[in-house]
Design a protein that fits this description.
Strands 9-10-20-13-22-11 form a six-stranded mixed beta sheet. Strands 12-21-14-19 form a four-stranded antiparallel beta sheet. The protein has a three-stranded antiparallel beta sheet with strand order 1-2-3. A hairpin with a 4-residue loop joins β4 and β5 (about 45-50). It is α+β, with helices and mostly antiparallel strands and about 400 residues long. The two termini are about 20 Å apart. It is built from ten helices and 22 strands.
């Protein structure tokens, strides 16, 4: 990409391109802050050396020129410093709104595609061995997990070492009160978690009683009960939230602004007694009011709701009921086979289970664990750079 002309407007540097792309406009202070010379930038650590206290916010470009081949811009600044910016970096650093959005999606989080029960026949499914052995398949799996929030890994060897091995290839598992992984073998009701019972488990996200609930959840089926029932249910909370936003703004406002109390207590061999509690809106929004996360567990919702204003209770219950109805109306349902592992975004996809019976000598055995998007996206960037430069 070749630069044909560069000029200054007050407070800005404007670059014109030979390929007839629209001009790019950069604030002077932004370019001065991003100078890549050895005084301002360490290429080994890929970190800025220029301290903010030494940056003049009112800096201006006093002299500008395009290098001989149009492959860069040379700038003399009003503070006496000189910078040289390559054309590739300038194009990549475009501040046009569309380009900013594209970079946000490619670098931080991908485009989300919401789904309803039509997704049943098209859940992205990958062979576990291929994911473990081939970088391209691994990246494709993770891109689908980011995009849809739900994937299936098939033909996983039926032992409890596979999930830790998968996590170690990317980063590491997140510890929780149940350890690095947790084992779900059906047993009578006990204090740790209703997940260990054979009863119906309603659609929920895990651990909304924590300030920072786990991001990604894995469930691996080592042994499936031979009786009827036990189907897994999964629903896209973002889809339900989007429908409510479009059709019932008042309900959406309540669900996205009123914090709901969640708590859980229990006893585990790894930590002994535990008692976690936190308040989240059922729908969390980011700085741009986009849907960022769903936090919903009817079993962990605090019995008293004493922090919700009196006059808000009834409309909030109505909004919660609407959300609950929508996630069930639009869920997918299937029975995991031995050797299946599901991976899903716990901040988006709600999961539950149909009740089932356990006969004498029968067993249902799942292994579970959590990971964080920060660690997975770091691995995705490294993998993408390795495969595509």
């Amino acid at each position: 990409m070749e630069i044909t002309h560069v000029y200054s407007e007050k407070g800005y540097v404007v670059v014109s391109w030979k390929d007839n792309q629209p001009d790019d406009k950069y604030p002077c202070v932004y370019l001065r802050d991003c100078c890549h010379c050895s005084q301002c930038y360490n290429t080994d650590t890929v970190q800025r050396l220029l301290l903010l206290e030494d940056l003049d916010v009112e800096v201006e470009a006093v002299k500008l020129e395009v290098d001989n081949e149009g492959k860069g811009v040379i700038i003399e600044w009003s503070d006496g410093h000189h910078s040289n910016f390559k054309s590739g970096w300038l194009r990549e650093s475009s501040l046009k709104p569309d380009e900013i959005r594209k970079k946000q999606l490619s670098y931080y989080t991908g485009e989300k595609v919401t789904w309803n029960n039509d997704f049943q026949s098209s859940i992205p499914t990958f062979n576990f061995e291929e994911v473990m052995m081939d970088d391209h398949t691994m990246l494709e799996w993770l891109l689908n997990l980011d995009k849809f929030g739900l994937t299936i890994l098939a033909n996983v060897p039926c032992n409890d070492q596979q999930l830790p091995m998968l996590a170690a290839k990317m980063a590491y598992l997140r510890r929780n009160p149940y350890g690095e992984t947790f084992t779900l073998i059906t047993q009578p009701y006990q204090t740790a978690n209703l997940s260990y019972s054979p009863g119906r488990l309603g659609l929920h996200t895990d651990q909304p009683s924590l300030e920072r609930p786990p991001n990604i959840q894995f469930l691996q089926c080592l042994k499936q009960a031979k009786t009827t029932g036990g189907e897994n249910q999964l629903s896209d909370g973002f889809y339900a939230a989007k429908i409510i936003r479009e059709t019932n703004p008042k309900a959406f406002q309540l669900l996205s602004s009123v914090p709901v109390d969640n708590y859980v207590t229990g006893t585990q061999r790894t930590v002994g007694k535990f008692h976690s509690a936190y308040r989240h809106p059922i729908i969390s929004l980011d700085l741009h009011c986009n849907i960022k996360a769903v936090n919903f567990s009817n079993t962990m919702r605090f019995m008293h709701m004493c922090t919700v204003p009196l006059e808000t209770h009834k409309p909030l219950y109505g909004a919660m009921k609407l959300f609950n109805d929508l996630i069930y109306q639009n869920m997918v349902e299937f029975k995991m086979r031995e050797g299946d592992m599901i991976a899903f975004d716990n901040n988006r996809v709600l999961h539950g289970r149909v009740a089932y019976e356990i006969n004498e000598g029968d067993e249902r055995h799942l292994e579970g664990g959590y990971m964080e998007w920060d660690d997975i996206r770091s691995y995705m960037r490294v993998l993408n750079e390795k495969l595509h430069g």
